[in-house]
Amino acid sequence: MKLKLCGAAKIVTGSCYWIKIGETQILVDCGMFQGRKEITRLNYEPFLFEPKRIKYLFLTHAHIDHSGLIPKLKSQGFKGKIFATSATVDLCRIMLEDSAHIQEMENEYENKRRRREGLPLRTPLYTVQDARDSFSLFERVEYNKLCSITKDIQVRYNDAGHIIGSAIIEMFIDDNGKKTKIVFSGDLGQWDVPIIEDPTLIEDADYILVESTYGNRLHE
């Protein structure tokens, strides 16, 4: 098994994990980099993997810093399945199309500047049609249900208590007889919040990949 952090490392945006188990390549999240210009430019860099070789994408939740590059992934050859909770699928249909509108508008504004300065025009990061094309790849999963994806990969989605549909993903991997459990926290919510359920307590794991915005201090 191989694991690579392709975003949200030393930065709190652009969450994306690449995992290779045997010949199967998968992703957990495919988020957009948001923030200052030097950060958002990362969205235009090539992926650190080949999109057409990715078999499955497991999405923790719909926020754009976790899902926002899915249309780009699709437009560059990804044809696999995207697993997400039902609420996350519904939210992504709204948020990814909205994000695509923003990409098109910002690109139009940028190209006006480039025309004035005689610079080459830029194509948008992705279009509304790219976003809509990705919707057919989503597959809904239920909380607390162990799902066999392949003979070597099982996953279970647990409520992360962050936004509606958000999930902590438990991934059970059998790599040539070596069994490993990886937990992907996604964004974790607070306890006793109206509407949103409390985060699920995960009792054991071999590896934990945790969002750590508050990892160096106590959260009030």
Quick gist of this model?
The protein is of the alpha/beta class. It has five helices and eleven strands, in the order E-E-E-H-E-H-H-E-H-H-E-E-E-E-E-E.
Please give a structural write-up:
With 220 residues, the protein is α/β, with parallel strands linked by helices. It contains five helices and eleven strands, in the order βββαβααβααββββββ. It has helices spanning 37-40, 64-67, 70-75, 86-117, 128-134; strands spanning 2-7, 16-21, 24-28, 54-58, 81-85, 138-141, 146-148, 153-159, 167-175, 178-184, 207-209. It has a six-stranded mixed β-sheet with strand order 1-2-3-4-5-6. A five-stranded mixed β-sheet has the order 7-8-9-10-11, with no helix packed on it. A hairpin with a 2-residue loop joins β9 and β10.
What structural class do the secondary elements suggest?
Answer: alpha/beta
User: Which stretches of 5+ consecutive residues score pLDDT under 50?
Assistant: none
Strand % is 25-35%
Binned, the helix content reads 10-25%
Strand order of the largest sheet: 1-2-3-4-5-6
Order of helices and strands: EEEHEHHEHHEEEEEE
- Spatial extent as radius of gyration: 18 Å
Mean pLDDT: 95
Count of extended strands:
11
Shape: globular
Please tally the helical runs, counting DSSP H or I stretches of 4 or more residues.
Answer: 5
Q: What kind of sheet is the major sheet? A: 6 strands, mixed
- Terminal residue distance: 38 Å
